[in-house]
Amino acid sequence: MALSALQRLLGGLGATRARLGASLSAEQGRLSPEALEEALLSADAGADVAAELAAGLSRAVRKGEVGVGGELGWVKTRVAEMLNSTTAAAPEATPHVVLVVGVNGTGKTTTAAKLGHRWAREGRRTLLVAADTFRAAAVEQLVAWGERAGVEVVSRPPGSDPAAVVFDALQAAVRRSIERVVVDTAGRLHTRHNLMAELEKVRRVCGRAAPGAPHEVLLVLDATTGTNGLVQVRNFQRSAGVTGVVLTKLDGTAKGGVVLAIARDLGVPVRWVGLGEGLDDLLPFDSEAFAEALFAGLP
User: Which of 50, 84, 118 represents a domain boundary (last residue)?
Assistant: First the structure.
């Protein structure tokens, strides 16, 4: 039997929940604002988020507004609301072009393949574009993933101009009425201004080849970096116009609270979460399920 999104999140957030639980274990039936703040800080939710939720809980207790779910129920509701505040539907277009960006080692190429696989499985005509023409074997890696996912991959020889590859692929997608195009770009440090300028060029070329493209710019962020990854989001926002985050390796870290910092401090929605290496281990982000899984079973 297939696991529900909540069940998978419960497993994926196990390490984060354990860290939260360690900070709350001394509580005797009631959750104090001080313990909540400490727990959120330990899970890398960020100082602003922790202080805001702790102060809100203190006010709610003082005014008798906690509700039937108690302090923990109040926190779950506020967390879900905080995450929902950045959620907005991505614009629809044909082709719908998604640019996948990020630093090296975050899982960009596998994320691109997982997105392609998901949409192809839904019956959408999908194309993967290998725009990482510099990293050794990057094209071969995406082609291999495309074969596993059952999705066509457009590629050119190593060393080709990434913008030219994207332009040709998108023109072909328009002619063929492709519904989804996922562009895997080269990993780049946000401090390398020449590489970020190249990414801006790829974005401009997308718009010339397909109206309104790219319709989404997804930054792939390794969850194990915690709040240290926020600087990546800020810099890619400036240079690449990031519209959403894909948080990978969530199942291997106790820093899952970073989702709150991304939403609260940066106003960028988390679109997808990665909970493993398989093609089906990428889930659309659900704020209520995330909040429930984050605090499930805690004191």
Answer: 84
